[in-house]
Every structure is written in C-alpha cells, then in structure tokens.
Amino acid sequence: MHVPDGFINAPVSLATGAVAASAVAVCLRGARRELDERAAPLAGLVAAFIFAVQMLNFPVAAGTSGHLLGGALAAILVGPYTGVLCVSVVLLMQGVLFADGGLTALGVNITDMAVVTTVVAYALFRLLAKALPRRRSSVTAAAFVAALVSVPAAAGAFTLIYALGGTTDVPIGKVATAMIGVHVLIGVGEAVITALTVGAVVAVRPDLVYGARGLAKPLEIRNADGTVVPVEVSKAAPRPVRKIVGVGLVLALALAGFVSYYASTSPDGLEKVAHDKGIDARAEQHSAKDSPLADYQVKDVGDARLSGGLAGVIGVGATLAVGTGVFVVVRRRRSRTESAAPVSETV
Predict the structure, then answer these.
(1) pTM of this prediction?
(2) Nearest-angstrom CA–CA distance, 70 and 190
(3) What is the rounded distance in angstroms from the CA atom of residue 201 to the CA atom of residue 336?
(4) What does the CA dihedral 211, 154, 102, 322 come to, rounded to 10 degrees?
(5) What pLDDT sits at residue 238?
(6) Of 2, 7, 23, nearest to 70 (Cα)?
C-alpha cells in the first residue's frame, strides 16, 4: 500500500506530513515507557523482520497481490508507541534506499501504514484480550482479528486522504469499494502472518510479548483453612534474549535474501486499484529512482536472484541498524529520566 509521489496533492501531503511528524514525536515519548529490559532488545529486530516480510508479496486475487503492513504485529510484540516507530523506520528505509513509496508521500504512508494500522489494531487487540479468557491462545486469536481489521482500516484511511487531496478526478465511491474490497483479502494474509508470529513468540517467551504481559497468574499460597495469601516475588534478573534475537535475525535474513525471490510479482492492492481506476494518471517518478538499491535490486548485479537477495539482506541490515539506533537512544533517555527522578526516603 505504499503511496507513490503524485497521487496526493501538495497541501494534503504537507498536512499528513505534519500529522506523521506529530505522531512520531508523541511515540518517541511514549516508547520510553515501553522500551524496558524486555522490549528494547527486540524493537530493532521487529522493524527488520517487518521489512523482510514486506518483501514477500502473496497472491490474493486474479492479478493482485498483498504484503504485510506490520502495524498490528509491531504493536502487539513491543507496544503501540514503539510499533509506530518500527513501521516508520521501515517506511523510511524503503523510501530512501529502495524507491518504494514516494518521498513527498512519506507523511501519507506513515500516517496510513504506521499510525492507522497500529492504533486500530492495538485498540481492538486490547478489547479482545479483556473479553477473552486469560490464555496464550487468546493472545493469538486477538492478534489475528486485530491484524485482519487493521488492513481494510488503512485502506479506508487512504480513501479519505485521497478524497481530500487526490490528483485525479475519480469517483470516491469506486475508490473506496475497490480499496476496501481487495484489502479485506489482504487482511486475511496479514492476520495469518501476525497470528503465527505472535503465537510462536508467546509459546517460547510470553514475557517478551508486550500484549501478553500480565498473562501469568500471580503466585499464591493456599492455607489449611482455605484462605489464599498472595506471595510477593522480588523481580528476578531478566532472562537473556540473545537466542530469540539471533533466531529472528536469521529468519529475517532468510526471508529477505532467499524466500523473497519466490514472492508474487503481481501488483499489490493499491497498485492494482490505481491502475484500474486511473488514480495513477499523475504518478511521478521516484526521487530515488537512481538509487543503487532501487526496486529491491542491487545495481550492476546481473543475476536477478542474487541481486534481489543481496538487496533484501542489505535492507534487513540497514533497518536493523537504524531501528536499533533509534531505540537505544530512546531507551537511554528513559534511563536518564529514571535516574534523575527524586527518591523518597522513609523515616
């Protein structure tokens, strides 16, 4: 659903850019509360994993494909504020390095693919998590539904943005019907990927899943008379996450470097709708079209499989590096805030 340059006029692009910048600023502050000793090591990996999986377009209908948006997955794994930042880093890397998603449309893409998907998905996930039994399977089920709904919600948000600033004269009803219709199908793929990933992590390390915190029941002792006494347990040292980070990184590299070669080559939902409805009549060439990594191919590498695989590996590495850098800075600011907080003394 990456919106290219030329789809949305300048005033609305500037407005969505302001919305995106404001949202990122809010999320940078909010992420300080989420990036604790459990979430911080995973946040950069989540961004890199989303980048890798977005390269795997899957067929959804005749001549149309879809790919993961990632807002639901990121929000559930590392928190909604950090989730917005994860997807924003991915979109920035794709736009600057790979000419995927217009640079003047970066605000549109962050607003739509990062903010809308994350907010809708996490709000629905929390509602479902409260209503469902406190089990690991409930987390997976809630993740599935939240991801499913987040994709057509993003399609609806694009339709609204297009209604305000579309550069071609296309009946908005036709745009809405086509966009939401095809993205409901794409949402099924999003839901499956999200549920499988969340379910796998919950099965191994539920303590690392932000949306599953509090899943375990507190420790209690039942006395002979039947009374139950809660037991306070001092905070244990956090279990190392190096193993799961290593496994996740290897998986991301394999998906981007090898499996992506077999991804569907059909246009994605937005590209298909844009072509069929004439939305792309005023599309502009990407400012980074001459990038050595444009279109997810390494320039001057003749073999298509090797070229695409190298581009995917470079993308995973770049996204991991930038994402980790951002989250390390945010984490350090949290640590400084905590260390600067006054300590009350009891006399």
Answers:
(1) 0.91
(2) 8
(3) 30
(4) 0
(5) 54
(6) 2
